[in-house]
Every structure is written in C-alpha cells, then in structure tokens.
Design brief:
Layout: H1 2-24, H2 40-55, H3 66-79, H4 81-84, H5 93-96, H6 125-133, H7 149-160, H8 167-173, H9 177-186
Bound molecules: heme C (HEC).
Length: 198
C-alpha cells in the first residue's frame, strides 16, 4: 500500500512540478524556427482530430460548378496564397518564417493538366472545417466571420479540385483575370454537374 501511495504522490506532485520547472527553464522552444516541444505535435493532432470528428458538417455541399471553382480560385489567391503558395511560385518569405510551416498546396509546381472527363469532386469536409474554424496556435486563420457559407464551400471546393482545375480557374488563381473570363465564356457550353448548396 505504502509503495502505491508514494507512486501516487510522485505522479501528482513531481511530474507537474518537473513540467512547470521545464517551462520556466528558459530552454523551451518558442521561436517559430525552434524544434517542436516534446509531444506538442502528438497532443495537438489528438485534440484536433477529436474535435473535428465531432463537428464535421453532415453534407459536403455536392460537386462544384466551374463558376464555384473560379470564385474559389479568386478567394484563394486573395486570402490564402500568401501562406499556402501559388503554382510555379516558391513559398513566400511569410510562409518560410512560420511554425508550423503552412502546407504548400501547389508545391511550387505548375497546375496539372486538366482532364475534362473527370467529374469535379465535392469539397473535403475536413478542409471546409479548417477554413471555417482555423487551427489554433498555428497561424491558420478561421474565416467564419468573414466569408459567406457559399464562399467557405467554394474555396474548399477549389482546394479539393486543385489537381484537376478547369482553365478558367487555373487562370484565376494565377492572376490572369481576363484570360479567366474568356475561357469561362468559351467553356460555358461544357456540362458541369449541378451544385446543391445555393
Ligand atoms: C497566415 C497564414 C495562413 C493563411 C493566410 C491561411 N492559412 Fe491555411 N494554414 C496555415 C497553417 C500554418 C496551416 C497548418 C496548420 C496545422 O499545422 O495544423 C494551415 C492549414 C490549412 C489547411 C489544412 C491542411 C492540411 O493538410 O490539413 C487548409 C485546408 C488550409 N490551411 C486552407 C486555407 C485556406 C483556404 C485559406 C484562405 C481562405 C488559408 N488556409 C489561409 C496558415 C495560413
């Protein structure tokens, strides 16, 4: 019995005290360029996944239209590219200086060629959740108060289709608005699947 009591006391008092002293030691990595805290990634991921699983939307708003993808591309270029990068462009100095590093969705590479036989995919509900709510202590902003519900879905649909973007959306994300408009007119005859989130 005595042994268990000692173990309990060590557990309750010593471990938290040691952790507190560690935090006060002045050696804890807090700079964005420092390596992660012990278990930082593990705890952050655990909490993230549990919360997200709890709060994911029930539906994915269905496959986007080409217009949704073009709007998503414009929203992305304006609000996300500074951290998440553009096709054919190296990561920005802001992205390089952040910890954790924002994932580079285009990996600085050109946009993959478009296959019109592949239907557009619905947005990933996880992407939608992250764009809407942001990710605490990472620098990923939540856009819930700033975007409409439709805009939140459009930028998520854009990302979920980043490997098969129609020419108009590709031109829009690369900042060629005139080209985007012309191409949208040309390809308007193309059948896109109806979207049901209006
Ligand atoms: C100020 C920088 C910044 C901006 C602006 C920003 N993000 Fe992020 N974003 C991040 C960081 C950092 C992460 C990584 C978070 C993590 O490690 O969990 C992230 C993560 C994400 C993820 C999750 C990726 C994954 O693989 O789990 C998505 C999706 C995302 N961002 C989309 C967007 C969209 C869409 C926008 C614009 C509407 C945007 N972000 C704007 C910094 C940013």
């Amino acid at each position: 019995m005595g042994k268990y009591l000692i173990a309990l006391i060590i557990g309750i008092i010593l471990v938290p005290t040691a952790f507190y002293l560690y935090l006060r030691s002045g050696d804890v990595p807090v700079a964005t360029s420092a390596s992660p805290l012990p278990f930082e990634r593990f705890f952050a991921k655990l909490a993230m996944h549990a919360t997200m699983a709890h709060q994911l939307p029930k539906t994915d708003a269905g496959p986007p239209t080409e217009t949704d993808l073009v709007s998503g591309a414009q929203i992305y270029r304006q609000n996300c590219a500074v951290c998440h990068g553009l096709p054919n462009k190296p990561p920005t100095i802001i992205a390089k200086g952040m910890y954790p590093h924002p994932p580079q969705f285009f990996h600085s590479r050109p946009i993959p060629s478009y296959d019109s036989n592949r239907p557009y995919r619905p947005a990933s509900r996880k992407v939608y959740w992250k764009v809407k709510n942001g990710v605490r202590l990472t620098g990923m902003p939540g856009f819930k108060g700033s975007f409409t519900e439709q805009q939140l879905w459009q930028v998520s649909q854009f990302l979920s289709n980043a490997r098969n973007l129609p020419a108009a959306a590709a031109a829009a994300v690369e900042g060629k608005p005139q080209e985007a408009q012309q191409r949208a007119t040309v390809s308007r005859s193309r059948q896109t699947m109806p979207s049901n989130h209006k």
